[in-house]
Inverse folding.
């Protein structure tokens, strides 16, 4: 995933993984729901941005953000259809 957003060196990957782990641990201790995919993409983007805003492929980050935006309503529609089909068939 990292090479699509920004070029990562080993130390960049370590920084992204460490920050992701700390965010996941903190959120888990606070009882917050989270997505590990969202966190690692944010960490990789943060590492790239720290080296310079121009080092991030923002078109790729934009595509990822659009995919996240459509995931929630898409999952809701599909689960609603499955529930409707199962309830009308079984019930």
């Amino acid at each position: 995933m990292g090479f699509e957003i920004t070029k990562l060196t080993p130390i960049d990957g370590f920084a992204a993984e460490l920050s992701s782990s700390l965010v996941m641990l903190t959120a888990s201790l606070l009882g917050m729901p989270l997505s590990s995919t969202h966190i690692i993409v944010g960490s990789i983007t943060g590492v790239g941005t720290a080296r310079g805003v121009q080092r991030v492929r923002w078109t790729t980050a934009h595509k990822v953000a659009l995919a996240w935006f459509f995931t929630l309503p898409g999952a809701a529609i599909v689960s609603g259809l499955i529930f409707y089909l199962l309830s009308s068939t079984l019930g």
